[in-house]
Write the structure tokens for this entry.
Amino acid sequence: RSLAHRAGIIDLDNIATASHYINHPFWNYCDTKLANVMMAKELAIRYINTNIKVNSINPGTVYTNVVKNNNVWYIKYFLIFMCFLYGDRSEFEGAQTILHLATSEDGDKITGGHWADCTISNYNPLADNVELRHKLWDLSIRASGIPNELTNEYN
């Protein structure tokens, strides 16, 4: 299963630096996975007083077209190696955790969790850094152009 978010960092001063992405695509991938976990936790908190539940999921290492058709040879071989190391899952197998959350009582009860293999899972502790999460949220809102009044400030 993918543990990429655990190696992620959030460097708000260099979040959109092209050289970081070009020179270090795997670390950038890790950073984006951590950002996904952080944004899911932030959304869960912002919608805590509603019926909306927000969780992040880890589908595991899924052998998809991203792996099969990747044109960057070293990324392709790295991804194939990861599939070999962690076991490649089919798209059907990778979808099981999100299907579990969509159809089980867990999905109705739990919000703000990180899930893998249909169970609650550990995650990078940076996702619990409230100040960093708020700064990432604010940066994302500004970059997206969404008006503040639509971002559901804490209820």
Notes: Residues 25-46 form the longest helix (22 residues).
